[in-house]
C-alpha cells in the first residue's frame, strides 16, 4: 500500500511532477538503476520534493551501452525541461 506505480508517467519528469501534483507526495523514494536515480532525484529536488534513491542492479553490458547513450541525451534534456 506504500508503493504506487505511475501508469501515466511516460517520462521521468512526468512521474516526478505527477508524484507531487496527482499523488500529493512531498517525499519520495525512487527505485531504479543509479544512472536514472541521479536524474530523477535532481528533477524531484528542483520541483520542491525531498527525494531519495535506492539503486537497483545495473543492466547487462549490451543493454548498458544502449542505456548509457540514451542517458547521455536524457541528462542534457533535463536542463531543457527545467
Q: What topology does this entry show?
A:
Blueprint: H1 12-21, E1 27-32, H2 34-46, E2 50-55, H3 61-81
Parallel strand pairs: 1-2
Helix pairs in contact: 1-2, 2-3
Outline the structure in words.
This protein has 82 residues and is of the alpha+beta class. The chain has one domain (12-81). It is 54% helix and 15% strand. The protein is built from 3 helices and 2 strands; from the N terminus they run αβαβα. The chain has helices at residues 12-21, 34-46, 61-81; strands at 27-32, 50-55. Strands 1-2 form a two-stranded parallel ribbon. α2 links the parallel β1 and β2 (50-55). α1 packs across α2 and α2 runs parallel beside α3 (61-81).
User: What is the total number of structural domains?
Assistant: 1
User: What is the average per-residue confidence, as pLDDT, rounded to a whole number?
Assistant: 85
State the low-pLDDT regions, or none. none
In what range is the share of β-strand residues?
5-15%
Order of helices and strands: HEHEH
Radius of gyration: 13 Å
Structure classification: alpha+beta
Task: Please tally the helical runs, counting DSSP H or I stretches of 4 or more residues.
Answer: 3
What is the helix content? 40-55%
Biggest sheet strand line-up: 1-2
Largest sheet: 2 strands, parallel
How many beta strands in the DSSP annotation?
2
Report, as a whole number of angstroms, the end-to-end distance: 31 Å
* Morphology: globular
Give me some keywords for this one.
15% strand; two-stranded parallel sheet; 82 residues; 2 strands; single chain
